[in-house]
């Protein structure tokens, strides 16, 4: 469930996601934020980066690393993050990232800069949104720079950011579905 509280905890008291909320398969940071370690002597300088990357980026990154041309539509969601690894840019390489839960139709969230919007649950014939007080009946917004544990929904304070990210998510979904038949 996208609105699961706390981090998953086993019987020994171990919190597999530390202080992060959520778990694998959910939309909170506990299900997505993991460290990535890269070492390439003489090329990658020791240090840390706050670049937003995703496993799908390895296709474009490996192609760039090998200087291999790639067809434009070969991996449309993949971004070449090699400049981040090599330290040739401090600018954000990936400007947004969509998270998806398992199951059908699944739930979506979008990250953009420090912002993360967990979209409202989709309406469906099986589960109509008839209870407006359900936590998933509306989108929730977090500023991960201020609140990496996602404890405070700031959607009421930033309605313009909610609209902006909701529109961006819809735009990305529309592009992924391709042109509609007429």
Q: What is the topological layout?
A:
Layout: H1 57-65, H2 82-86, E1 97-100, E2 108-112, E3 115-118, E4 140-143, H3 159-177
Antiparallel strand pairs: 1-2, 2-3, 3-4
List its salient traits.
182 residues; four-stranded antiparallel sheet; 3 helices; 18% helix; disordered N terminus
Question: Could you characterize the architecture of this molecule?
Answer:
The protein is an alpha+beta fold and 182 residues long. Helices cover 18% and strands 9% of the residues. It contains three helices and four strands. The radius of gyration is 18 Å and the shape is globular. 19% of the residues are buried. Residues 1-8 have low confidence and may be disordered.
């Amino acid at each position: 469930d996208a609105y699961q509280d706390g981090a998953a905890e086993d019987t020994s008291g171990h919190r597999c996601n530390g202080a992060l909320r959520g778990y694998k398969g959910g939309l909170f940071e506990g299900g997505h934020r993991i460290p990535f370690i890269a070492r390439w002597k003489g090329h990658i300088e020791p240090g840390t980066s706050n670049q937003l990357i995703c496993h799908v980026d390895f296709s474009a990154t490996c192609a760039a690393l090998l200087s291999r041309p790639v067809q434009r539509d070969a991996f449309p969601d993949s971004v070449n993050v090699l400049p981040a690894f090599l330290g040739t840019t401090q600018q954000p390489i990936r400007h947004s990232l969509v998270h998806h839960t398992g199951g059908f139709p699944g739930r979506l969230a979008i990250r953009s800069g420090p912002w993360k919007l967990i979209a409202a649950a989709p309406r469906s014939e099986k589960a109509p949104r008839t209870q407006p007080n359900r936590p998933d009946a509306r989108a929730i917004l977090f500023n991960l720079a201020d609140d990496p544990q996602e404890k405070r929904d700031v959607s009421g304070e930033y309605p313009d950011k909610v609209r902006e990210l909701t529109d961006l998510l819809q735009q990305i979904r529309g592009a992924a579905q391709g042109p509609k038949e007429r």
